[in-house]
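FIELD: query
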Amino acid sequence: LSAGWRIGRELKDDTTRFCTMTNGGPLFVYVRDGKILRTTPLAFDSDDPDTWTIKARGKKFTPPRKGMLSPHAINWKAMVNAPNRLRQPMKRVDFDPDGERNIQNRGVSGYEPISWDEALDIVADEIKRMKREYGTGAIASSNGSHHNWGNIGYYLSAKLRFMNAIGTTEVHHNPDSW
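FIELD: result
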């Protein structure tokens, strides 16, 4: 669960608490032995700054001292542990990236597990093939002011750098009305 850095906060019961601030809202994720035990909304304690308060007509309105979550964020544990979740790359059994692709069987044929190396080779070769056969503008990447993948969707993110490296057509939209 790290790339050389120690992340998360070790708790007394051998659980590590991680915090995500991405799609779905701020969330604490409690993990033990690589398994998610539970998720809870991020809660603020007395060390955190006070929240805002609006005073109107003799009343005070202050939000709760915890993050608000979307329904799919609350369900992350179930999604991660779902028995039908893909846990390794898969390839259609009758798909040969160097030969017959059998596109008529998309959605019909079964799948077989492949290694990460093979999957990444297929993706890299497909990017090269698309550019070779259809030109440098054949691959489009969409960015907007509202990210959907955490930091990945932001304009100055790893996604943008990757898309620039492979040479894509950028499609920008901004649905904000302000």
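FIELD: remark
The two ends are 40 Å apart (CA to CA).
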